[in-house]
């Protein structure tokens, strides 16, 4: 109905313009009438044109999924996930929390790094062990560590372990397990020592001792047989080291050395390479020296340009 009214107005204005031009009235009136006609016609064209509003789009884009499915249907073999391996543990003792980890990083059947760090800094009183994809564990812990730092700046107070736990589990739950980070979080705050495990899907546990990673079953057997309440510092470190060694010697994805982190009220102690159960005994202690010079066995000189020889001919007769 609105379109029809606009058309009628435009036709009426056009007829009025023609009548004014025939009667020879004021040119200013003609110009005003012309502008009015242009306005009416623009409104009519806009109303009659199809709507330019686009339908709302969802928050996810599945173009790559459809592309991958098409490639698989055409015979392309999709790459498989690489197996990851780690043994990380933690326990609560009488003065705080002790965390432990091995130092082997793997790419499927390949040992990528023999002495990596799996105990990540979160806050001065909080540390976190990571198992799973190395990039995911480092990125997640770095992100939450920066958020805890900003929170300390804003409040002027020490970070609480439950704050780090909430940030980690919320982030992992949002990605439904696609962020491959299995974590053991430990720390001491104003409410005492705390130890938590966070699974890649976002579920958590609060336990007096915990293990994660491919060597977690071997480590858990040590904890279940030897853990007791109110352990001293030395007793706790001994059990943690034994649990990590159980994972190292019974799981191919775990290996190399043992790292330990002891967190108490107002103090932390990071024992890097606390134990070396697999030293490289086959390395020559004297090292290897190359000879000072190389003996010359053959010398051959090849010219780059051919030498031109000028041959003089007989003299010309006069």
TrEMBL record:
It is found in: Cytoplasm; Nucleus. SUPFAM superfamilies: N-terminal nucleophile aminohydrolases (Ntn hydrolases). Gene3D superfamilies: Glutamine Phosphoribosylpyrophosphate, subunit 1, domain 1. Keywords: Cytoplasm, Hydrolase, Nucleus, Protease, Proteasome, Threonine protease. Pfam families: Proteasome. InterPro entries: Ntn_hydrolases_N, Pept_T1A_subB, Proteasome_bsu_CS, Proteasome_sua/b, Proteasome_suB-type. Belongs to the peptidase T1B family. This is Proteasome subunit beta. It comes from Phaseolus coccineus (Scarlet runner bean).
């Amino acid at each position: 109905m609105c379109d029809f009214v606009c058309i009628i107005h435009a036709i009426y204005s056009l007829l009025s313009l023609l009548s004014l031009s025939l009667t020879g009235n004021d040119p200013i009136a003609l110009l005003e009438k012309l502008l009015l006609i242009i306005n009416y016609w623009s409104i009519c064209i806009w109303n009659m044109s199809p709507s330019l509003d686009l339908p709302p789009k969802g928050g996810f884009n599945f173009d790559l999924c459809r592309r991958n499915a098409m490639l698989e249907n055409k015979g392309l073999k999709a790459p498989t996930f690489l197996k990851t391996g780690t043994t990380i543990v933690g326990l609560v003792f009488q003065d705080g929390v002790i965390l432990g980890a091995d130092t082997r990083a793997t790419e499927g059947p390949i040992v990528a790094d023999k002495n990596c760090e799996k105990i990540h800094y979160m806050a001065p009183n909080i540390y976190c062990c990571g198992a799973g994809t190395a990039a995911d564990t480092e990125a997640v812990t770095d992100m939450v560590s920066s958020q805890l730092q900003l929170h300390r700046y804003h409040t002027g107070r020490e970070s609480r372990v439950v704050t780090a736990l909430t940030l980690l589990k919320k982030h992992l739950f949002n990605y439904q397990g696609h962020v491959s980070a299995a974590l053991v979080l430990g720390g001491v705050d104003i409410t005492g020592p705390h130890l938590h495990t966070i699974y890649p899907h976002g579920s958590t546990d609060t336990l007096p001792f915990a293990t994660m990673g491919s060597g977690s079953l071997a480590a858990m057997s040590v904890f279940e047989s030897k853990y007791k309440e109110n352990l001293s510092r030395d007793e706790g470190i001994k059990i943690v080291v034994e649990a990590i060694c159980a994972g190292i010697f019974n799981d191919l994805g775990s290996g190399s050395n043992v790292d330990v982190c002891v967190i108490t009220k107002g103090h932390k102690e990071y024992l890097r390479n606390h134990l070396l159960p697999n030293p490289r005994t086959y390395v020559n202690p004297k090292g290897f020296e190359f000879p000072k010079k190389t003996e010359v066995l053959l010398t051959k000189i090849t010219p780059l340009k051919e030498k031109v020889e000028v041959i003089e001919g007989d003299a010309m007769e006069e």
